[in-house]
Amino acid sequence: QVQVVESGGGLVQAGGSLRLSCAASGSRFSINATGWYRQVPGKQRELVAVITSGDKTNYADSVKGRFTISRDNAKRTVYLQMNSLKPEDTAVYYCHAVGIGGEGLNPFDSWGQGTQVTVTS
């Protein structure tokens, strides 16, 4: 099976930066798209940014111009560079990958465990 693991969260002051990483592992898999989501307790999970296998990207309006999603295929890792952080960016950030994998090349839909980002004013 394909698994993804997030890292890089932490505590920063408003205006600071963090870089989140999403590392994928498994055998015979191909990821079609990877997205970063975030969720605040009691609120809906929100799509933040997406990158496809063709390096197409899309961002939520709230993070455009501040966040950048990128990938390193050799490292099987997708990154989310977060600059000019605001208190409203505080959330648990999740990585989500979709694609095909395993000997049967079956479709998969994998979520990471989440990493906490806290931005103070």
Architecture overview:
By secondary structure, the protein is mostly beta strands. The strands form two sheets. Strands 2, 4, 5, 6, 9, 10 and 11 form a seven-stranded mixed sheet that branches. Strands 1-3-8-7 form a four-stranded antiparallel sheet, with no helix packed on it. A hairpin with a 4-residue loop joins strand 7 and strand 8. The radius of gyration is 14 Å and the shape is elongated.
Name a few traits of the molecule.
4-stranded antiparallel β-sheet; 0% helix; elongated; 121 residues
Explain the layout of strands and helices.
Layout: E1 3-7, E2 10-13, E3 18-25, E4 30-39, E5 46-52, E6 57-59, E7 67-72, E8 77-82, E9 91-101, E10 106-111, E11 115-120
Parallel strand pairs: 2-11
Antiparallel strand pairs: 1-3, 3-8, 4-5, 4-9, 5-6, 7-8, 9-10, 9-11
